[in-house]
Design brief:
The protein contains five helices and eight strands, in the order αβαββββαβαββα. By secondary structure, the chain is α/β, with parallel strands linked by helices. It has an eight-stranded mixed β-sheet with strand order 1-2-3-4-5-6-7-8, covered by helices on one side. α4 crosses α5. The radius of gyration is 18 Å and the shape is elongated.
Length: about 200
Amino acid sequence: MAKTTCAKALQNWEQDHPGEQPSEAEDIRLIFQNPPLDKLDPPVLNTLAKVKRLSLSSNAIEKMVNLPGLRQIEILSLSRNNIKKIAGLEEIGQTLKELWLSYNYIERLDGLQPCVKLHTLYIGNNRIKVWDEVDKLKDLPEIANVLFIGNPIYENQKDDPKLLVLKRINTLKNVDGTVVDDSLMEKVKALGDGVPTTTVK
């Protein structure tokens, strides 16, 4: 089946936003393309020099790519695609604040290191099987809001999984939609020193 290209998706956007130019827009949503987008086209997307929020959710995108033209990007949404690996964030890590990647096929949290201003990561319903992957978020100085619900690491835990996340990263302000307060941190302290490390089979 034929797929929608990024160029065609932007044409569709222009039809829905008469009088507006994509190169001048701060919020562009290319979700639910029919037929779906299956790949990102850097020459096309790099023209979106002023975009702050780019939504590409609910398509069939398989790979993240470098998009150095998105010099002001703050929110990138790629949820509900076919992505298996976090990549291509080197050029936008200085401005990106929120990354939405839920409902993909991601197993590892490598590739986030350039995102020094990232405070929100939604990565629920992926394939993260190893708790040590969560530790990689410690390298993100601004990370405060995460969502892991629906990953294999949450299965068969006797303790509340969000407490296990907080045990590893105690600077978070919100986990799985729950605001971190003193009572929640008391529950974390009650867990003791053990944290899960094994691979989920």
